[in-house]
Amino acid sequence: MLTKRQIVDVLTRWNEAWNEHDIDRVAALFHDDIVFENWTGAKIRGAGALKNAWEPWFRNHGGFRFNTEDLFVDEEAQKVLFQWSLDWPSIEKGYQGKPEHRRGVDVMHFKDGKIIHKCTYSKTTLEIDGKRVRFVPE
Fold first, then answer.
1. What is the Cα–Cα distance from 120 to 52, expressed in whole angstroms?
2. Are 30 and 110 in contact (CB under 8 A)?
3. What pLDDT digit, counting tens, does each position of 92-134 carry?
4. Helices (H), 4-129
5. Can you list the domains of the chain with their CATH numbers?
6. First to last CA, the chain
């Protein structure tokens, strides 16, 4: 089991790796049996499959940046609530490439010191090019 401080350290390294667009450092924090559910409901199982799914995004990152808004750690349960904001070029239909600000929460579970389950939830109203836009997943 990780201590609270160790979990915070893992999440700090996680966020730094994301913001440096380093897929290898991000993937190093995955448990082999990771299950990831994104904000559209898509589900990916396994560290290799998740790394492969994320690699194109990291290659064509457009300078995305995650900012930590809040972090809650349950040491005993080995779980984290990570509230974040994301600044990036929008991928939303009709807004592609325009500056987007998105807010959300990740629920992460740890096993053997690594992230084994990650669920991402995103607000349904985004800020794109300075305007509020309702997000409608396809």
1. 18
2. no
3. 889 999 999 999 999 999 999 999 999 999 998 999 999 999 8
4. 4-19, 23-27, 47-59
5. 4-134 (3.10.450.50)
6. 39
Q: What is the pLDDT of residue 39?
A: 86
Single pTM value for the model: 0.89
Q: Find, among 27, 74, 76, 72, the residue nearest to 48 by Cα.
A: 27
| Residue 91, pLDDT above cutoff 80 | yes
Q: Could you tell me whether strands 43-45 and 65-74 are parallel, antiparallel, or unpaired per DSSP bridges?
A: unpaired
Name the helix (H) or strand (E) containing 83: strand 79-89
User: Can you tell me whether residue 17 is helix, strand or coil?
Assistant: helix
Cβ–Cβ < 8 Å for 39, 72 = no
CA distances to 46, 66, 74, 91 from 96, rounded to whole Å, are 30, 19, 38, 5
* Tokens matching residue 82: 């990570």
In angstroms, rounded to a whole number, what is the distance separating the alpha carbons of residues 57 and 38?
Answer: 14
DSSP for 99-119 reads EEEEEEEEEEEEETTEEEEEE
State the average pLDDT over residues 70-93: 95
Amino acid code (one letter) for 118: K
Confidence of residue 137 (pLDDT cuts 50, 70, 90): low
